[in-house]
Each structure stands twice: as structure tokens, then as C-alpha cells.
Amino acid sequence: MKRVLALSGFAAVAAALVLVFAGQVRGDEAYQHVVREGETLASIAERYYGDPRRENVLVAENGLTAGGGAPIEVGLRLLVPHVTYHRVEEGQTWSAIARRFYGDPRRSFVIVEANDASQSEQPAEGTELLIPYPLRHVTGQSDTLQRVAKAYYGNGGRDETRRLRRFNDLRTNRIARGQIILVPVEDLKLSDEGRAAIEEFTGRAPAAGEMRARQAEIDEELPGLLEHVRRGRFTEAVQLGNRLLGAQVLTGNQIVTIQRELGTAYVALGRVDLAVDAFREALQRQPDLQLDTVRTSPPVMRAFQRAKEGDGRASRMQAQPEDAGAAEDDAEE
Predict the structure, then answer these.
(1) b vs e for 30-54, b when ≥16 Cβ sit within 10 Å of the residue's Cβ?
(2) In terms of residue numbers, what domain contains 269?
């Protein structure tokens, strides 16, 4: 008789709660795969994640009672969990983002860690963040918090166990049978085949973090822009700065950095009008922006001050020759 991977009574309730939770928190990010003839959990995991070992994720998220490649019933709907991406909106905080995706602002530390950020600094507007998926694990008879951590993180070390305890607001490592443990998984990314399958069914491919990757590339290019200005290579600085601005995926902090450096370069090239415009753009993003009064030349400081004051006449003024020379001297210093 063909074995069928089924839902236990408790697991069925858990699975139903999973779908409700997914619909409320993840919205259209939740996707259900309908099992076809000949498929196994391992083959489905291979298709969506490129790794058959991820069948344990499908088992946990759907409240299934067994794994190990057992046949599953044709027509069974399986929720396919995966990380998502979020672009920070104006004024959003780590706590607000955590409340949106996890229902609890105290869980923001997971998002901060997944994006190599700092809890003390709020995310910059426009930043694309990776949001770890809160996988639901229903504990079994022999489960411990360490074993749960090892199942999804590869080891049950102290840091991983502490992470689960903190995310689930547990005071100790003790867990009971049937308890739901939320496991934030940040490497649960869809394969190209998986994204294509979802796009074919829904008409829209899930985000793959392309914007996040491009923003990381731009971060790597910014030191080159600063070096151009410091070395007095102002034409090269303008070329690089404007190319980066054309990317259309910049974070607020990246825009501020680029426009600030362009302001200095434009003064040196005799274009105070463009310098004032650049500084104005930077100040719109960061009103409290300040320049180092010791290391910044007077011509650059004047252009910056005009931008702060919103002097409309500044955009029609050209730099004097001595202003350009002073800016170049400042860059060399």
C-alpha cells in the first residue's frame, strides 16, 4: 500500500494556523504548491530551493508528520516558505519593520543581523533589506531547543539557541511537546527554477534581492568617489558620481554621500551652480548634514551655506577662479 505523508490532528490545526498567519503577515508572498504525481518532498525542495535537504522546511512549515522522502498525496497543497525583501520607506524604524513582518518590534534584532546593520542606527530610506522567514516548527517528543537550532542552522550552539530563545521570548531552553517555535531563517532563498515556477503560476516573480545586491556594489564603489575628490581628480569624481546616481536604486545615505562629494568637485571645476544644487539634494535627505569646517575650503563652505539657506541666486552664480583653486588645495590637504 502506498505510504502517504499526512497531517496529524494537532499538526493539521498547526498547518491551518500557518496558512492564516502567512496570509496575514506575508500577504501575496505566501505561495502554495499543489503536489503532482511522482513528486516527493525532496524533489519539491530541489525545485524551489535547489537543495533536496530543505524538505525539512516543507515538513515543518506545513505541519507534516514525517519526512525522509516519503511519498506525498497528489493534490496536497504545500506552503513554500522563503525569505522576502523590503525597501525601507521614509521614517521607518527597525521596530516598525519587525512589527510589520513578525508582529513584534522586539524581533527587529533578527533583521538587523541578517543585513549586517547596527541596532543603534535606523535603516536608511531606500535600503532593500532581507527579511528572514519565521519558520514554524512544532516540537516533537524528543525535541530540545538545541536540536531545533541544529536542524535549521546546522549546529545547536549557544548563539543559535539564544537566538531562538530571544525570538520566541523564552526564559529558558525548556520546550514542551507540541509547542510552536518560530525559527527565523535568512538563507531560505528560492532557486531560479523556483522563482520561475511561482512566476508562471502567479504572474509575478518573487524578488531575488537584485536591488540589495546592487546597493552593496555601490557601497564598494563609494570609496573610489571619495578618493577621486581627495586626490583632486574632480572630472573623474563627477563622472563616477553621476553614473552612480543613475542607478536608481540608491539608499538615502548613498545619495547624501554622492551629492556631498559632487558638491566639492563642482566647486573645484568652477560650477558653483551645480555645487549648490548637489548640496541642496544632500540636505533634503539629511537636513542636519554638516561639513568639516577645518578640512573644507571656504569656497566649498560658501556653496554649502547657500544651499542651506536656499538662496535661489546661488544657482545662477559661477565660481571665481580663486574659488576653484582653493577647492583644489583643500582636496589635496
Answers:
(1) bbebebeeebbbbebbbbbbeeeeb
(2) 210-332
